[in-house]
Task: inverse folding
């Protein structure tokens, strides 16, 4: 199979074909080794402006293609992604610092996102309405127009694809801004995929860049909606900027997710699920278990087990099959993680294992002697750090779980399912998993959070119809309606 990524497109952006951007170029590094992986174009504000004009021009014709034909493009893209699976996985490992399993899972999930989107293309898209006089009254979903998508670096392919595929298939043109840390896996490869799948020119633009590129996208008058995945702080800025133009905004933001262990849980399994939840992809997941809430009868034993799990994890180059923990994406993020741990220790927390780094590799870390004011309890860490705090009864567990401005996901470990369902109802969280981990996703569920974890928007399945279309009410009369004047 010919690779999709090649030297001819290196240092370019995808906007009416591949071209040199006004914003210059930037090297892309492999975090595990520092090696240069390639280069990306950086889209300037002028590049964004040109892309918006082109997208506005191309969108109407694309919408007129009709659902079934647009669905065909999606099915071709899914087939191509299957064929080029290995190339994607390789970039997923090298550019993100991910172990193979994480990269494979992300690619597989992205195929699922594209196929689910293809299904939307041929689903009913409206209602017939009752009427006193019209021969036809209907409500139909029509595209929004141009959708701007801003994605982060931690799961760059799937977090872009879960918006790109449904937005396109529902007849919108798309401008995607991947993060500068992951512009190939989360950008160039997506552009190549849809280019090869037969998407008409101008319908998709891939515009890598930093905050300035993102701001240009959010403030461009021709962009009708912004779908943003990233931190709560940036999401707030995006919402404020978009509000000036009354632009539709979908925000999927941070989390500080609770893993609750009741006294009747299977201790070994609860610790294993907890370790997976905190350490998978170095804890750089919005769904990461950020707080372990453990019944006081089990908490000492639970911490011991969690420490055992953490110590057994091999840290190093993620392309080595023995590795469980790869690098943190960059120095700035590593500093953020170690700063939270140091401030927590100054506030009285105890490091039971880890707490150290070498290069970009941060050791899996377990903290105890935590209270609700400890920085590791309050803040989203986005690193391989597991703070453990104990509770005395179910009400106390619910109080601790809800003691956070976030509300993305939670997990409850117990052998009493009825009790767990009851606790789940009291937890302010968009997703709750009983006897599983906080880290769960599928392309056909309404994925999203409560509180500061988002704006109530949901990704996945039929939720995508609400996200990427708007309603139009249409009536038809046989002959002109007569009025008194
Ligand atoms: P970030 O907010 O710094 O960046 C996200 C994206 O926004 C990047 O593409 C960035 O270039 C862009 N951006 C930055 N400033 C901008 C601005 N002023 N205007 C427009 N765009 C701007 O987030 P990050 O550190 O890259 O990602 C980690 C965060 O994302 C964590 O908080 C994590 O929880 C969250 N996240 C949430 C989900 C979810 O589905 N809820 C999924 C993954 C990550």
Result:
């Amino acid at each position: 199979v010919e690779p999709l990524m090649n030297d001819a497109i290196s240092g370019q952006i995808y906007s009416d074909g591949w071209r040199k951007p006004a914003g210059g170029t930037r090297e892309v590094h492999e975090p595990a080794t520092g090696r240069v992986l390639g280069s990306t174009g950086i889209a300037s504000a002028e590049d964004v402006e040109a892309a918006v004009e082109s997208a506005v021009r191309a969108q109407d014709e694309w919408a007129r293609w009709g659902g079934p034909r647009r669905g065909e493009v999606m099915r071709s893209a899914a087939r191509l992604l299957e064929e080029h699976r290995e190339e994607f996985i390789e970039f997923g490992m090298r550019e993100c610092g991910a172990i193979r399993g994480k990269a494979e899972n992300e690619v597989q999930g992205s195929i699922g996102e594209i196929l689910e989107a293809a299904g939307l293309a041929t689903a009913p898209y409206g209602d017939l309405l009752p009427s006193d006089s019209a021969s036809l009254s209907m409500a139909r979903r029509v595209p929004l127009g141009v959708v701007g998508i801003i994605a982060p670096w931690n799961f760059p392919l799937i977090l872009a694809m879960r918006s790109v595929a449904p937005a396109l298939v529902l007849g919108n043109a798309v401008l995607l801004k991947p993060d500068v840390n992951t512009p190939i896996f989360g950008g160039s490869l997506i552009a190549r995929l849809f280019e090869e799948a037969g998407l008409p020119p101008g319908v998709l633009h891939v515009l890598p860049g930093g905050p300035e590129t993102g701001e240009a996208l959010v403030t461009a008058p021709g962009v009708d909606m912004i779908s943003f995945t990233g931190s709560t702080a940036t999401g707030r800025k995006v919402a404020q900027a978009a509000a000036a133009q009354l632009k539709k905004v979908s925000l999927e933001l941070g989390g500080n997710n609770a893993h609750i262990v009741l006294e009747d849980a299977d201790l070994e399994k609860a610790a294993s699920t907890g370790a997976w939840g905190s350490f998978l992809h170095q804890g750089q997941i919005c769904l990461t278990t950020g707080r372990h809430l453990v019944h006081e009868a089990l908490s000492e034993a639970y911490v011991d087990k969690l420490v055992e799990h953490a110590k057994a994890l091999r840290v190093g180059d993620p392309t080595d099959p023995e590795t469980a923990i790869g690098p943190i994406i960059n120095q700035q993020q590593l500093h953020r993680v170690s700063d939270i741990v140091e401030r927590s220790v100054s506030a009285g927390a105890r490091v039971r294992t880890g707490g150290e780094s070498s290069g970009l590799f941060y050791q899996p870390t377990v903290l105890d002697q935590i209270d609700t004011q400890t920085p590791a309890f309050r803040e989203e860490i986005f690193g391989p750090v597991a703070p453990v705090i104990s509770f005395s009864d179910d009400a106390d567990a619910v109080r601790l779980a809800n003691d956070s401005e976030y509300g993305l996901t939670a997990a409850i470990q117990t052998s009493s399912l009825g009790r767990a369902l009851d606790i789940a109802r009291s937890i302010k969280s968009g997703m709750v998993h009983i006897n599983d981990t906080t880290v769960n996703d599928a392309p056909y569920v309404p994925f999203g959070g409560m509180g500061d974890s988002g704006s109530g928007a949901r990704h996945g399945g039929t939720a995508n119809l609400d996200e990427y279309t708007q309603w139009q009410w249409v009536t038809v009369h046989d002959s002109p309606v007569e009025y008194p004047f």
